[in-house]
Amino acid sequence: MAGSSAKLRRLGAELRRLREAAERTQSELAEVLGRSHVSIVNWEHGKTRIGKSDLHVLLKELGASDDVREELEKLRLAGRSKGWWSVYKLPDWLRPLVSFESDASQITAFEPILIPGLLQTEDYSRAIHLAGPYTTPREVLEKRLELRKGRQRRLVGEHPLELHVVIAESALRLEVGGPAIMADQLWHLVRLASAPNIRIQVLPYRVGAHPAVCGNFAVLHFSDPKLDPPLGYADDAVGGHVIDDPSEVEVLLNMFADVRALALTEPESVDFIATVMDEYRARKT
């Protein structure tokens, strides 16, 4: 789903809904438009942009009302517009995440090794990128840090993103950048945990093996789940990828529910983070 965006995905969902309501097949519409079957599939999945003339013919064929045609043309144009992140020249694997993240109403995430990106301090984030420069070359590091600040602005404002994260104890113990940077990072978590839209839980070592031991993941939720069903996202060694298969997203949702139930409560988690923070502070002096 590397070429997709939130607006294109929504437009595709509407095209699919109209086609199914009209009881037409993708192959039939492909023949009418003189396009390949793959083109129709990609439009409906938001993977490629549909042109104005193709959209006009398609909506006429499906019997869409003038109001629907107008709204979907607006959505098509919105899908062409560049997001605030376009100036950062993001790699293909990161662009979809930032786009969907900007439209999401809630994110649930599990992190076994690192502090979640939306909760990282600048010093912590810089230290991570310097330690592993293969996905973020040093010449783009400062731009990537600016991007992260932009993404973190979703957590504040009139309609802030709701964020619920489960962080493994190992992420708190992994020393990134030295004890001073870690102490500041954990104090940042303690402060953020008091925000009404941010929930932080810690999965302690004593839990042992757990359902999400395979790695990190996030699930992005949207305000209208019927139109915009949840999406998953997972990092790998050379980037990351969006997960849009409903059955796979359901697995991620179940995994998050399991680790959330195994984790410390939110008040217990804040106390635990503060304890680890004090350990780092003691090493600073």
UniProtKB/TrEMBL annotation:
In terms of Gene3D superfamilies, this protein maps to: lambda repressor-like DNA-binding domains
InterPro entries reported in the protein's UniProt record = Cro/C1-type_HTH (IPR001387), DUF5753 (IPR043917), Lambda_DNA-bd_dom_sf (IPR010982)
Domain (HTH cro/C1-type): residue spans on this chain = 15-68
- Keyword set for this entry? Coiled coil
Coiled-coil residue windows: 1-35
GO MF assignments: DNA binding
Q: In terms of domain of life, where is this protein from?
A: Bacteria
Q: What is this protein called?
A: Helix-turn-helix domain-containing protein
Species source reads Streptoalloteichus hindustanus
